[in-house]
Amino acid sequence: MLIEAPCSKYKKTNFKIGIVLCFALAIWCVYDGYFNERWIEAHTDKQGNPEAYLLINKQGPYYLVGAGLILSVVMGFVVRRRVLADEESLVINDKERIAYDSIEKVDKTYFDKKGYFIIIYRGADGREVRRKLSDRSYDNLPAVLERLVAEIS
User: Fold this and answer.
1) Which residues are registered as beta bridge partners of 7?
2) What tens digit of pLDDT does each residue of 77-108 get?
C-alpha cells in the first residue's frame, strides 16, 4: 500500500500570501506613482524633479509584478513535491529513493513538539546520510513515519 505525503498547506499558503502581497503592493505603487496627484506633488521638488519615493513608486511595480510571477512559477514546482512510502522504499520528491534496509535509525524525538523527524541511512557511496522531514514541508507525515517505523523494525 502506497502512503503519500504531499506538499503542505502551510507552504502553499505562504506562497499565496507572498504572491498577493507582491501584486497588491504593485497596485498601490502604481496608484501613488501615477494617479495620486496630491502625493506626486508632495514628492516633487520645486524644479519638477521626483524624489526617491516617487521614483520607487514609478519603477517598483515592474519588479513587484516580476517577483509575483517568479513566486507563482516557483510555487508551481514546489507544490509537486511529495514523499511516498511504498513496500520497498521511501521516495522523496520523485528523486531520492531510500531503501528501508539501508535505514539505520529514525530519530523522532522532536516530531511531537516541533514536527520533524530525521532519517539516518547509508548512501550509495557507503557514508552516513541524515535527511530531515518536516510537517512544515509535507502533510500526512505521521502516516509516513508510522509506515517507516513499521518497515525498519
Assistant:
1) 138
2) 999 999 999 999 999 999 999 999 999 999 99
Q: How far apart are CA 64 and CA 84, in angstroms?
A: 36
| 58-66: Cβ within 8 A, 24+ apart | 58/29, 58/33, 58/34, 60/25, 60/26, 60/29, 60/33, 61/26, 61/27, 61/29, 61/30, 61/33, 64/22, 64/23, 64/25, 64/26, 64/29, 65/22, 65/23, 65/26
pLDDT in tens, 17-73: 999 999 999 999 999 999 999 999 999 999 989 999 999 999 999 999 999 999 999
